[in-house]
Amino acid sequence: MARNILLADDHVIIRRGLRTLIDNNFGRSEWTEVDRTNDVLSELQKKSYTHAILDMQLLDANLLEVLPDIRKVNPDLPLMIYTMCSEDLYAPRMLKLGVQAFLSKQLSEEHVINAFGRFFQNKCYFSEHILYDAYADKMKRENPIDELSEREFAVLQYLVKGISVKEICGILDLKTTTVATYKARIFEKTGAASVVDLVRLMDLYSNEK
Questions:
Q1: In 97-208, which residue ranges form alpha helices assigned H by DSSP?
Q2: For residue 132, how many C-alpha atoms fall within 13 Å in the half-sphere facing its CB?
Q3: ∠ CA 146-183-117 to the nearest 5 degrees?
């Protein structure tokens, strides 16, 4: 699937450099650039994106002020925070608000490429200590994914890959209502609020083993 990326940063040089790095290492993407939180919300209402890369501080506001609104507009959109802001201060909050990845602009090019490789594979990317602290309680409990039936687990595998309910119906030869029921049960049993949460849970528990 072709990537259609929303890139929000208040420095044009950062946007140009990031676009070049990603296009050179992961193939060309379709890009939309903005530098204000209001424009982020506006773009998300206008069209569909496969990924969003956002700085914490934009020209008109801090991203933290509008992130809940972003999630209301598109709860399953993979979000990467690429910023100079403190990871220890902001990353735990971002994780709770449904962000899939948090990356410092101070990291090396090799590190950045590795982070985006995981991000584009629909995997979670946070420092290990951030994930451990955020999920300390969950890590003491039994794996909620083990509570899923075989059919529910099969549907889960497709959901975390970004495959739609309609496509899953065709793959598994099931009715739309049946797949929708499985999806609802998956959310209920795992405690996830979105597909992004499911991705993080899968990543967390697969890394434990």
A1: 109-120, 128-134, 136-140, 150-159, 165-172, 176-190, 195-208
A2: 4
A3: 75
Q: Hey, where are the domains in the chain?
A: 4-134, 140-208
- Summarised one tens digit per residue, pLDDT across range 59-115 is 999 998 899 899 888 988 999 999 999 888 888 888 888 899 999 999 999 999 999
Q: How far apart, in whole angstroms, are the C-alpha atoms of residue 116 and residue 103?
A: 9
Architecture of the structural domain at 140-208: Orthogonal Bundle (1.10)
Quote the CATH superfamily of domain 4-134: Response regulator (3.40.50.2300)
**In this predicted structure, what is the pLDDT of residue 26?**
96
CA distance 98 to 105: 20
Calpha distance 29→41 (Å, rounded): 20
